[in-house]
Design goal:
Largest sheet: 6 strands, mixed
Strand content: 15-25%
Number of domains: 2
Shape: elongated
Radius of gyration: 27 Å
CATH architecture of the largest domain: 4-Layer Sandwich
CATH superfamily of the largest domain: Metallo-dependent phosphatases
Number of strands: 13
Structural class: alpha/beta
Number of helices: 10
């Protein structure tokens, strides 16, 4: 038997593993049609090696030390020796450590201007400052692509995403720019990035995307650096707070890394800014007599089903248990969540329940299963000490 012929057959099977189910005679004919001349015996031996080598990549992975290379195919010879071929590793297939190394200089350059900047408090009547302004955003899914066969195929790229974020700023300037609040709170309720390696970080859910990992990551950071700094320059609040939920089903740790980069920058550049990253399925933030419970709506690992759009008894009891165990009875409680890309508000006995709309709008999957949902965010004025809130739905 010719060893080179066997290696050629193994390479062919690696590229087209479906043919391993063919019998040796049928496969020998298919190989001949693909310019590989192999005997029945050589084909049989190649099939034996290939079918017994399902774990071969893991077996030889530790031998591959070259940067940005990965195993293309691997097999074990009859004498027990391993053979493998290598190919360049695509950016989208890099592990997180390699991914970070590939563009850390670009991040450092982007965030190089980190000299501390303190914004000055305005002299405003104290009663006007007994309110907070909350900007609730969710489900930005940077990198999501709407294929041409989507029912309503809107464009969603860097420019669209940035325009939607800055439409929020225009609305804040127009409707709230002449006011001054005790606190301005901006929240991201999860799924900031569409996914890693064209899948959700939970895995098993393939995603159509128009950006690779690097482009998603840098787009989110660039746009939010501009977005937050523009809001800071408006100087409409004594305190400035950023709340980000990282326990979600699309972005997971990938989104957490983006949040952490921004947090590091703003902690240095604007030391009076509070920047919190919530890595639990539910966490909360207190403003005066109000407590805001924050969740994406579906977690990064365990939940089979998401929290529902319409509040049911099971979910109400689940949230009440959180209130009890965290001893939040003294507050006016509010539960804010994303995930479903659709706006809705309800009131339970012990808390309000809000589905925050998404910045991205609706994906192909959501359109074809639930219909179209308009992109948007929620802007809310909160009386610091009274049970009074006024919310506005901003469609983008």
């Amino acid at each position: 038997m010719n060893q080179k012929t066997i290696e050629s057959i193994l390479n062919f099977l690696t590229e087209k593993p479906g043919y391993k189910k063919e019998g040796k005679k049928r496969l020998s004919y298919i190989l001949f049609k693909n310019n590989i001349k192999a005997s029945i015996e050589e084909t049989e031996e190649a099939l034996r090696i290939f079918n017994s080598s399902s774990s071969s990549k893991e077996s030889v992975k530790k031998e591959v030390k070259e940067d940005n290379l990965e195993i293309k195919s691997a097999w074990q010879l009859p004498n027990g020796e391993w053979r493998y071929s290598l190919k360049p590793k695509k950016e989208d297939e890099m592990d997180p450590e390699d991914f970070w190394k590939s563009f850390k200089e670009e991040i450092f350059e982007l965030l190089s201007d980190v000299s501390p900047n303190i914004f000055q408090e305005k002299n405003i009547d104290s009663k006007q400052k007994e309110k907070g302004l909350f900007i609730w955003t969710a489900d930005k899914h940077v990198g999501l692509e709407l294929p041409k066969d989507t029912l309503y195929s809107d464009n969603y790229d860097y420019t669209t995403f940035r325009n939607r974020m800055f439409k929020i700023i225009s609305e804040i300037k127009k409707e709230y720019g002449d006011k001054y609040y005790d606190e301005l709170v901006i929240s991201d309720l999860g799924d900031p990035l569409d996914g890693y390696n064209k899948q959700t970080t939970r895995g098993g859910h393939a995603l159509p995307q128009n950006m690779n990992n690097k482009e998603q990551f840098l787009t989110y950071i660039k746009v939010h650096k501009e977005f937050y700094e523009e809001l800071i320059r408006l100087n409409i609040a004594k305190h400035f707070t950023i709340l980000n939920v990282s326990n979600d089903n699309h972005s997971g740790d990938f989104g957490y890394f983006a949040f952490e980069v921004l947090k590091t920058y703003f902690n240095i550049k604007y030391p009076t800014v509070t920047f919190k990253i919530f890595d639990k399925f539910i966490d909360h933030y207190v403003f005066g007599n109000h407590c805001f419970m924050l969740s994406h709506g579906k977690d990064s690992e365990d939940m089979k089903a998401n929290l529902p759009y319409i509040l049911n008894n099971k979910t109400e009891n689940f949230i009440n248990e959180y209130i009890d165990r965290k001893n939040l009875h003294a507050y006016y409680n509010h539960f804010k969540k994303g995930d479903l890309h659709t706006y809705g508000e309800q009131t339970a006995k012990r808390f309000s329940y809000t589905n925050v709309p998404s910045i991205v709008g609706s994906s192909k999957w959501t359109q074809h299963n639930f219909g179209y949902s308009q992109p948007g965010c929620l802007i809310e004025e909160v009386d610091k000490y009274k049970n009074k809130t006024t919310s506005k739905l901003l469609l983008l």
